[in-house]
Write a structure and sequence with these properties.
Radius of gyration: 14 Å
Number of helices: 3
Helix content: over 70%
Shape: globular
Strand content: under 5%
Number of strands: 0
Distance between the termini: 43 Å
Length: about 80
């Protein structure tokens, strides 16, 4: 099974943003780190959508990240 060029680029992008997210998660101020990690994830989604040639809509990306955060933060 071969990995396509787009998949290799996407995996490299995810790995790069993983390190940025880890760094943002180290911010000791509650909820500021959450906002920083969300921003990094939004940027990563935009870059991955560019790799695959999919139009990125920031509002849709925010909705996806918001739903992920909603499942993590207790009600």
């Amino acid at each position: 099974m071969t990995v396509s060029e787009n998949e290799q680029k996407a995996l490299k992008t995810v790995k790069n943003y993983m390190w940025w997210s880890m760094g943002a998660g180290l911010i000791p101020v509650p909820f500021v780190d959450l906002v920083a990690v969300s921003g990094v994830q939004l940027k990563m989604l935009a870059e991955i959508s560019k790799i695959y040639g999919v139009q990125f809509q920031e509002s849709r990306g925010k909705a996806v990240i918001g739903s992920l955060i909603g499942s993590i933060v207790p009600a």
